[in-house]
Structure formats: C-alpha cells, structure tokens
Design brief:
heterodimer; A: mainly alpha; 16 helices; 66% helix; B: mainly alpha; 37% helix
C-alpha cells in the first residue's frame, strides 16, 4: 500500500496536458483508496478553520435578516418592493431565474457528464449538486413570496379543495413552472442524497463518537457496501442520470416559457428555451468555480479538485458564454430580420434606452470576460478564474434583469411606459438570499461528504487498471503513477 | 487509520455464526477469491467493497436487477397520471374556456406530463433501490467485526453465508484461506442489546406528542363550534380602511358614512328625473292624485329598476280605478283566445296591491314605491301586481307629423312586431312559434287592440315601453325617448285604424273606400 498522500505541489505534475502515450492522472499526489477517504473525511472531522466560522457567522446573520424580511413582507405586503406598474415582474422574478439558472450546474455535472463518461466529474459533482439544491431553495422562495398571499401559495398545487372548488389551469406556463421546478428540486435532492449514501457510510465507519456514528448510520440507511447492493445502486444511479438529463434541459426551458409564451416584444421569441438553458449552464458553472476555488484551498483538496478539473470547467464556461453571446446577437438579428417595429424598438431600447448600463454590464460580463479563457494561463490561474467567475455571476443576474425589466418597462403603448426603481427591500432580500445559500453550503461542508469518495475511488481503480494494461503492453513494470500494487495475478480479469 | 479495537471479547460460548468473512487489500484479490468461491459451488455469497467493483457480479454470480422494469412502469404511471389529471381537471370537472381552445389533452399538456413522468421514475429509482436492497437495515451481523469498518474505506471483503446449501465451516475456511486474505473472521451474531436506549425512546415519544398538539388544535377547531369571531391568523384583506353602506363614521357630525347629495349640485342623469318627457307622467301633478297605491314616487334610476305593474294575465282581478290613467276592468270577455287561456291559468291567483309603506324618506328614496317588494319576475304565475296610478300624460309631447309616424313605424317593426305582430294583435312570429311549441313558460303578448290598452293614455304606453311590463323587457336602452314617443304615436295610430268607423274617414275620401270594397 502506498503511503498517505504527499502534500500538494502544483509543479510536481501538470495534469492539464495529455502527453501522447501517457494518460494524465485525474487526481494528483499518488492517491490510494485510504488517502482519498482521509482527505475528504478530514474536512468534516477536523475542527473547522477560523475562516469557516467567520463566513458562517456572517452568512447566518445575513440569512436571518432574509428570513426576518420575509416575515415583514408577509405582514406588510409586496408593496415594500419596487414592483410597480408597468414593471410588476421585477427583482423577485429576476432573482428566481438567477437562482434556478445557477441550480443547473449540479445536475448537469452529475447526470450529463456521467452519461458522457466524463470521469473528471467525480471530484466536483457532490459539491455542485449541493450547490444546486441550495440554489433551488433560494429560487423557490421568490415565487412563493411573490404571490402576494404567501400563506395560500399551496393553491399552486392541484389538490381537491373544499373552499376553492376548482383546479389549476394546466395550459399556463406558470403552472408548468410549478411542476418543472418542483420535480427538479425533488429529483435533484434524491439524486444528491442517493449519491451520498455510500459516503455517509464511510463517515459512519470513521466516527469515533457513538452519537455521530448513530446519526450517520441512520442517514446512510445501514449501507454495508454489499456488492449485491452496489449492483442495484449503480443501476439506479444510471437510471437517475438518464432521467435527470432531459429534466435539466426541461427546467430552464419551462422557465423561459414563462416569458416566451407571452406576447411581449423581447420575450415572445422561440430562441428562449436554448438561450436560457445555455445561460443556466453558464451561470451554474461559474458559481461552481466561485465556490470550489476557495473550498479546495481552505480544505486542502487540491489533489482531488485539480487544476485539470478547473480547466475543464473553464472550457465549459467559455463555450456556454460564447453560446450566450451568440444568442444576444441572434436576438438583434431577428429584431431586424422580422421587420417588426416593436421587436426592433425593444432591442434598440435595450442597448441604448434608459437601461443601457444594465445591458452593457451584461454584455461585458457574459460575452467579453469569458473570452479570456481562450488563454490557458487564464484557465489555470485560480485567482483569475475566480474573478472571471464573479463577473459571470454578475453578468447573468443582469441578463435576467435586462430581459425582465426592459421589456416590461416599455411595451407597445408609450403612455404606459415607466422606469423601474428598486427599494431597499429589493436589495436587502437579494443579498439575504446569498446568506441562505452560503449558510447551507457551509453547513454542507461541515457535516456532509464534499467529494464523492466512492466515485473517486472507482476512477482510481479504473485508471490504475488501464495504466497497468498499458505497462504490460509496453513490457514495463508498473508505472510509478499507479497508486497501489496488485497482490495477486489478475490475468483472468481481462 | 486507527487500529481497529475489538468490541467484544471472544468468549468460548460464542454467539451464533453467520458465515466466514475474508478481507483483501485490493479488488483484484477479491475478484480472484470470489471466482474460486463461485467455482466451488457456493451461491449465498456476497462481497463488501468501498466502491462498485466491476466484474464482481460475474465473479459472484449476481443476477441483474429488475429495477429498470419497475422504473419503466413508474414512468408510464406518471405519464398516465399526468394525462388523466389534466384531462379530468381541466376538461371535465372544471373546464377552462379559453379562446375556444379544445378541452382535455392538448400540446400544452406536454410539459406537465413530461415532468410527472420524470418525477415518478426518479423517485421509484431511489425508493426501488432502497427497497430491493432491503434498506434501511441498521442491525447487520457483518457490522459486529470492527475490521469491517474498512469496507467503506480501503478494504474488500468476501463473505460466504452459513445458510448456503453446501456450507461447511471448515471447508469454507480452508477455501478462503487459500486465497491468502489479510484476515479471515467468522461473522457472529450481534449480541448487543437490541432495544433503543431509553432516553432516545423518551425523546421520540415526546417529539411525537408535541407534533400532535397542532393537529389536535386544528381537529378541535374543524369539528367544534365557537361563538367567537373567526381567528384572523392572516387578515386576507378582511379589514380595509373603507366604509360600506349603512355603516357609521365619526368623520361627519351626522355619523353617516354614505353622504347625501351636496346642495346646489346636479347629479348625472338627475335632470331627466322630473321631466314628463322622460317619464310619461307629470311629477308636478302627483300630489293631486288621490290613489292609495301611490304615496311617494321618485325615480332614482329612471331606466334600470324593473317596474312591475299589472301583468297582462292578472288584469281580471284589478280593481277599477276612476281616473283616466288607469283602467283595470275584467277583460275576460274582450280577451283574445290566447289571453283568455292565460287568464284562466292565472285565475286563482289573489291579486293584492301591495304598495310599499316607506319607513323613512331615505329608504323610500331607494325603492320605487310602485314595486311590490316580492314582485316575481315570472309572468305566468305572478300572483300580485301593484295597481299603478300616476298622472299620465294625455297629450303626446311630440307633434303627430308624418315623419314621426314613419319613425315610430320603423322602430315598432324592429322592436315590437316580433311579439306584438305588425298590426299589434299580439300575433308576432315569436309568439306564434312559442304557441306552436306549446311553451308553457311563454306569456303571450297583449294585443294592443283590447279595450284596456285602447284606453290607456299615451303616457302610460310610453311608461310601459320605458320600464317594460310583465315579461316584456324595458326598451329604454334601445330606443331614445323621442323614438319611444314616436312608437307611442304609431301604436295610437294602429289602434285608431283598427277601431275606426266610416265616420272617421274624411267625407271626401269615403267614396274611395266604399268603392274599393
């Protein structure tokens, strides 16, 4: 058995390049099964670093402020927001779409990259899925409190009501949204939980205190690692991935229907579903980078979340950012090509009207800043990529702002034009939703497995296996990168 | 890795054995040993690994799972649930009428159907995995060996169950030992107490009892009765800063929240309220009438309230009134066959003139005094009607010119002839059709040539057109006052023409008429 992982040294091995004839390792530091377990479990077992307490203190205060503001909103009414004729869909819907969009990366990484057999996903999928759940929690709050009488928000569901005597309108995109976001939230939650069961068992088996052992034992449902269980588990995981893949694409499609099915210029376009999905993946990956770059350094996870992982994510940010840029261009093209005066006006108004500043923030953050990722030194520089990811987060919020507010503020009738002014509560509540998000994420790091331990081990096993085959073919002994020697002959394996 | 500590002392009176468990350092050693075990004929075997080892199913002979078929069934269930739900809820039980779009399943049903298919399948995948694996299972004999903690870390265990058909304690031990495992232990029964610790039980009980409190409160409120006002958790706009009619206020000295008209102002529509041209009767002469049936008449809204006065089918019961305005006589002998039938049908009804006796001037101001409070709107069974007695105009307020007669004729033929007939005998097409269908709810229109109508002053006919009568609706919204007067003029001309003698014809025209005969 190899020893515990050596400390991380980025110069030691550059796994962002693939030398022909030699496969770059996905994880660095000559990891063994035990060392991977150790690295991940230490995050929750060791005392948290001081920075964790600072961040947790700050974000839990912010989250408390958010919850208090929701209570005030329910008491006072939605009039405390700046929503006013003609912009009735203002920040609450912008924030909803923003958070739902961010929530797309997790399931995309878990499901779509799983189906495409992108093994590098194993180091980042757990944190990304957790981020997805927490982002959807933040997203779900907004429509719930935007309905006005929040205590009747359950009227959105088709239930046999004795007071209402009616059913929801199933031809409304807003109801599709209830089903899409509800299905996405619950499916992501069970996907996340099911992926954690084996790792929770690892946490259980390493627990020293009986209470901790009991809690993790309950959470992992008494998982024993039986191969008969693993077989059903893997089948279920594959099925979930296959089911979640179209689901991811459908959620933001349905969210875009909220806009596209209406008649408003700037909303009523068929490009919205693909455009929204690309934007959602874009913003989701940016948020993953924003979270993982500090996380891997705080918890010393650099050997598992390597530069190669970040490099791959930055490539996806570059690709989806360019897709979003293409969508912006296509909208302008269609505004001209359709020869529809309202459509043309809307887009000229977006870029040069009263909200020009929002539009150009959006374009510079979403289209220009990711272009820096054409350069490899940008893709592999953690500070640079973190800054770009922040820009993308800002830009994607402004994208939703531009779509929602510019179209509503100036529609067909100049007499009903207006200019949207947010109130203090709009700003504080948006800020507060970050508090909820960060609080949940910090608690996740503190108590739950942040990296899919069993999946990373599976990748070690398969790469060691392929290296071994390669070495045998070349007539060499075991490659030095192979983390563990094989005690017995295994010719019969092949 | 901490050194595993034995949790139990290895006593000679060892608990029941469940089989042998061999520990290996990597998956290849495990696979080799597994193959050996399978080749030796053992089938009740299992391996415990920190990650899914590929090839183990073949090495141990594990059958594929039926989970995909269960998930397929769940997906189809989700799909049909969604389609049935949308079809029944939006098409059958509560059809939404939107721009004439079809009910039930439409392309708009796709998103929800898709989402429910995914939702059912995804939950079935997870729950099916948990169920097929027999989870949750918190008490498992394999957990009794502390070395087994590494099964979720870096060690690979092979297990042969004692319940296997060919199980022999010594030969299995020998077989596993030949694979050179890191350790080889017997899986022993868990002898630790099976009950939950008492504090946990108490805490759980307390939690359940606490959770029942809100449910009990709700149940009590749903099932019981209370004299107290509703408990407003959420106000739901129940309290609004506004005043409803009849509520008091402290803002004004008189305490009334509804304000009287400001003096010296004229409300919209008020100018026509006192004008005989718009009423058909003269309010100034009202005090001169001595009828008991009219105490106080005012027209708050000269158009809207349905004034129900002497429906045609109850005329037999009306008391004769001496004034020129109101002539209620027994019409049985004069009635046309249709009206006679109706009069017979309605004969048993007790005619009661029930004028409103206003308690206060304010109340009276809002209720037209001539309307009995319970005046039924259905004509045929109307039991009572107020005797209307007003100072009707006897003279037309418009001139009897050719132009006005033509205007009246045009409007009469558009609006009136459908029921009353072109000549006014109550034999319009609608009436004939209703009679041919034996429509028992149909009230035949009055002939305009019966004695009662003949004797009506022009103001009363105008009033009938304006307010409607019996089943006849008001035509005030269709005809301007001038047009209504023109129709009255035309009706008078029709009546005159149907009850004329040769003396009515100018002398120089009589010859032409007799010649034509």
């Amino acid at each position: 058995m190899a020893t515990i992982a050596s400390s991380y040294n980025p110069r030691e091995i550059d796994n962002t390049v693939d030398i022909p004839g030699r496969r770059s390792p996905l994880i660095t530091g000559n990891q063994t099964y035990a060392s991977v377990t150790d690295i991940v479990c230490r995050v929750a077992e060791d005392a948290q670093p001081r920075l964790w307490w600072v961040l947790f203190g700050f974000s839990s205060v912010t989250a408390t402020m958010f919850l208090s503001l929701i209570a005030f909103l329910i008491y006072k009414g939605v009039g405390i927001w700046g929503n006013m004729n003609p912009v009735f869909w203002a920040w609450p819907i912008v924030n909803f779409v923003f958070w739902v969009g961010i929530g797309h990366a997790g399931t995309l990484i878990s499901a779509i990259l799983f189906l495409f057999r992108q093994n590098w996903r194993t180091s980042i999928n757990r944190a990304a899925e957790a981020m997805t759940i927490f982002a959807v929690v933040c997203a779900g709050i907004y429509p719930g409190i935007h309905v006005g009488r929040a205590w009747l928000a359950f009227w959105l569901l088709p239930y046999p009501s004795l007071n209402l005597w009616m059913w929801p309108q199933f031809r409304s995109p807003l109801l599709w949204d209830v089903f899409a976001v509800g299905t996405y939230a619950s499916t992501s939650l069970v996907f996340w939980y099911m992926g954690m069961i084996p790792d929770l068992a690892t946490y259980r088996d390493r627990s020293k205190s009986p209470i901790r052992r009991m809690i993790y034992g309950l959470l992992c449902l008494g998982w024993s690692g039986s191969s008969r269980h693993w077989l059903v588990y893997e089948k279920a995981y594959t099925l979930l991935a296959a089911l979640a893949t179209p689901l991811v694409l459908s959620v933001h499609t349905v969210v875009s229907f909220d806009f596209a099915v209406s008649q408003l210029p700037g909303w009523h376009t068929t490009i919205f579903p693909p455009y929204f999905v690309a934007g959602a993946i874009f913003s989701g990956f940016a948020m993953v980078v924003t979270l993982l770059v500090p996380m891997r350094s705080i918890y010393k996870l650099e050997n598992l979340i390597t530069l190669r992982h970040l490099d791959n994510m930055n490539k996806i940010i570059l690709a989806t950012g360019s897709l979003v840029g293409l969508a912006y261009g296509t909208e302008f093209f269609m505004a001209w090509y359709s020869q529809n005066q309202y459509e043309s006006f809307t887009f000229i108004n977006r870029a040069f009207g009263p909200y020009w500043w929002a539009y150009w923030i959006m374009v510079s953050c979403n289209v220009i800043s990711p272009q820096l990722f054409w350069f490899k030194w940008m893709r592999t520089n953690v500070v640079a990529m973190w800054v770009v990811s922040i820009f993308v987060n800002i830009g994607m919020w402004f994208e939703r702002f531009v779509i929602t507010v510019t179209s509503l503020s100036r529609d067909f009738l100049p007499s009903s034009w207006g200019y949207f002014n947010p109130t203090m509560f709009d700003g504080l509540m948006f800020f507060g939703s970050f508090g909820v998000f960060m609080t949940l994420f910090l608690l996740f790091c503190r108590y739950l497995p942040t990296i899919a331990i069993s999946e990373v081990k599976g990748v070690i096993a398969s790469s060691a296996h392929s290296e071994h085959l390669q070495a045998e073919l070349l007539g060499h002994g075991h490659s030095h990168a192979s983390g563990h020697h094989h005690a017995t002959s295994h010719d019969a394996v092949h | 890795m901490s050194e595993p500590k034995p949790r139990k002392s290895q006593e000679p009176k060892a608990p029941r054995s469940f089989g042998w468990m061999a520990e290996f350092a990597d998956e290849h050693a495990l696979l080799d040993a597994a193959r050996k075990v399978r080749d030796s004929g053992y089938s009740r075997t299992d391996a415990f690994t920190p990650f899914p080892v590929h090839g183990i199913d073949e090495a141990l002979g594990i059958k594929p799972t039926i989970l995909p078929f269960i998930v397929l069934c769940a997906g189809l269930t989700g799909l049909s649930t969604a389609l049935l739900m949308q079809w029944w809820m939006n098409g059958i039980d509560y059809p939404y009428i939107i721009s004439g779009k079809p009910f039930g399943i439409t392309p708009a049903s796709i998103p929800v159907s898709f989402e429910l298919t995914i939702l059912f399948s995804a939950f079935t995948s997870v729950l099916g995995m948990i169920f097929l694996n027999g989870l949750p299972r918190f008490s498992n004999p394999v957990f009794t060996n502390p070395r087994f903690d590494r099964a979720t870390n870096d060690r690979f265990f092979l297990y042969v169950d004692a319940r296997d058909r060919y199980y022999n304690r010594d030969s299995v031990h020998e077989l596993l030992h030949s694979s050179r495992p890191e350790s080889l232990d017997e899986v022993l029964e868990d002898t630790t107490p099976a009950q939950l610790p008492r504090p946990i039980l108490l805490a759980a009980l307390l939690l359940v009892l606490t959770g029942l409190i809100p449910a009990m409160i709700v149940l009590n409120m749903r099932a019981g009765f209370s004299d107290l006002p509703r408990w407003h958790v959420f106000f739901d706009m129940d309290f609004q800063p506004k005043k409803k009619p009849q509520q008091t206020t402290t803002i004004f000295a008189d305490g009334r929240s509804m304000r009287p008209q400001v003096e010296g102002t004229i409300a919209r529509g008020q100018l026509t309220e006192q004008d005989p041209f718009y009423l058909g009767w003269d309010p100034d002469k009202l005090t001169m009438t001595e009828s008991n049936s009219v105490r106080f008449v005012t027209a708050q809204d000269p158009v809207e309230p349905p004034v129900k006065e002497e429906p045609a089918q109850t005329e037999a019961a009306q008391e004769p009134v001496k004034e020129e305005g109101k002539q209620e006589t027994g019409e049985k002998e004069n009635a046309t066959p249709e009206t006679a039938a109706v009069v017979e049908a309605a004969g048993q009804s007790t005619p009661v003139a029930t004028p409103v006796t206003p308690a206060t001037p304010e109340v009276a101001a809002q209720v037209p005094a001539v309307v009995p409070p319970s005046a039924p709107m259905d004509g045929a069974a109307a039991p009572a009607a107020a005797a209307l007695n007003l100072p009707w105009l006897a003279e037309l307020p418009i001139e009897a010119t050719e132009e006005h007669i033509q205007l009246g004729k045009t409007k009469f033929e558009i609006y009136c002839s459908a029921c009353h007939g072109y000549a006014g005998f109550g034999d319009g097409l609608v009436s004939k059709r209703a009679a041919s269908l034996l429509q028992d709810t149909w009230t035949p229109p009055t002939s305009l040539h019966i004695d009662r109508v003949q004797k009506q002053p022009v103001g009363q006919i105008f009033h009938t057109i304006t307010k409607g009568q019996g089943k006849m609706a008001s035509y005030a919204s269709s005809l301007t006052p001038k047009e209504r007067w023109a129709v009255v003029l035309y009706v008078k001309a029709l009546q005159r023409s149907r009850n004329a003698t040769i003396e009515d014809v100018p002398a120089d025209q009589r010859d032409r008429l007799t010649k034509a005969k």
